[in-house]
Amino acid sequence: MPLQVSTESPSAIAQSLESSSSKPSFLVVYASHVDGRSWCGDCREAEPLVDAKFADRADDVKVVYAGQKDEWRQAENPWKQAPFSVTNLPTLIKVTGNASKWERLVEEDVYNQKKLDAFVGPKTKQEQRL
Description:
The protein is an alpha+beta fold. Helices cover 31% and strands 22% of the residues. It has a single domain, classed as Glutaredoxin (3-Layer(aba) Sandwich). The protein is built from 5 helices and 6 strands. A 4-stranded mixed sheet has the order 4-1-5-6, sandwiched between helices. A hairpin with a 4-residue loop joins β5 and β6 (101-106). It starts with 9 loop residues before the first helix and ends with a helix. Residues 1-23 are annotated as: Disordered.
């Protein structure tokens, strides 16, 4: 099942990620779609792999769109601001340790299966049984 896009504000998403428990939380930031397709080639490559990676996992994952090209290029784009600090699309953010550690997988690394697997981690035994 494809991941669901969050309609929460950036501040609400930041608060949610920062209040995560001992289990990692993830945020996927993609370029917005035009006519049903992302304007970002790297995002188009990444979406099916990211969807498949999280399909049967119990992880907390939020997906957001950073906007059309003109919105994305603006310095005040909320996803470019702290704590997200996204510089390139797509970006997969992992928050662990009660928000003390923010890690990022960026651009072509997001759709590199080995790097994606290493970043997200293996499925738990419980997830493997599902």
